[in-house]
């Protein structure tokens, strides 16, 4: 039997009850990782955890908003308490709340920055003492154990996108944090990379003629969906001619989690079907 690449690793994935995050969790689990699943809601998180177990891997759920002040310590603590380790962190949770700058409220601005930038910062800050202690123990045992951080960015963070000053700014910040942590944590044998997505088809980006379609996110009704005509135009700009699937998005994250990328750090992989600007 071929050994799985992530056998026994402990992976934390935010926003993994649905969409891209769920696909990331299942991909890592298929290679043997043990998962800490997170979602705002218990139902989707437990569904993903059950799907992970069906693949023969262990999973535990950590429910709640990544923006909660106590979430980072609780999330990292779940991994340590349940699995006695921490090997992979994927900062995936997020959504968009768009408007042109003159109509964007302070609430819109801070909600998106808190979710996409402050939350990953807090999680990584909470993880540092744990990783430092594990790295010290590895050194004393004479082993080199490479740990992985993958932050989710976006082409909006690389190139900007009209109507997304909040989201593009947060994702640009993720890029800076990724490169900085790659330098700070290299001595701990941690690689820190980012994946910048283009158009990935999820419940938040599905083509729809329903202009009133919303999703309730932390008590806010956030507009979701893309007009079919606009979706068609967007897909025609992509060299591969279509938006990506959550499973394809997960594949890009997986590349940074496996041993073959142990000497790759501080990099951003664009997962966009060949689109190089927006």
Describe the structure.
The longest helix is centred in the middle third of the chain and has 36 residues, at 106-141. By secondary structure, the protein is α/β, with parallel strands linked by helices. Helix 2 (42-54) links the parallel strand 2 (34-39) and strand 3. Helix 1 (19-30) runs parallel beside helix 2 (42-54), helix 3 (71-83) runs parallel beside helix 4 and helix 4 packs parallel to helix 6 (165-185). The chain is built from eight helices and nine strands. The protein has a seven-stranded parallel sheet, sandwiched between helices. It has one domain: 3-Layer(aba) Sandwich (Rossmann fold), CATH 3.40.50. The model has no long low-confidence stretch (mean pLDDT 94).
> Please, how many helices?
8
Known CATH architecture: 3-Layer(aba) Sandwich
> What is the CATH topology descriptor?
Rossmann fold
Question: Biggest sheet, strands in spatial order?
Answer: 3-2-1-4-5-6-9
Taking the alpha carbons of the first and last residues, their distance comes to 45 Å
Based on CA inertia axes, which overall geometry fits?
globular
Strand content: 15-25%
Mean pLDDT: 94
Report the CATH superfamily.
NAD(P)-binding Rossmann-like Domain
Query: SS-based structural class?
Result: alpha/beta
pLDDT < 50 stretches: none
How big is the Rg? 18 Å
Strand count, sense and closure of the main sheet? 7 strands, parallel
The run of helices and strands is: EHEHEHEHEHHEEEHHE
The overall strand count is: 9
State the domain count.
1
Please report the first level of CATH classification, the CATH class: Alpha Beta
Helix content: 40-55%
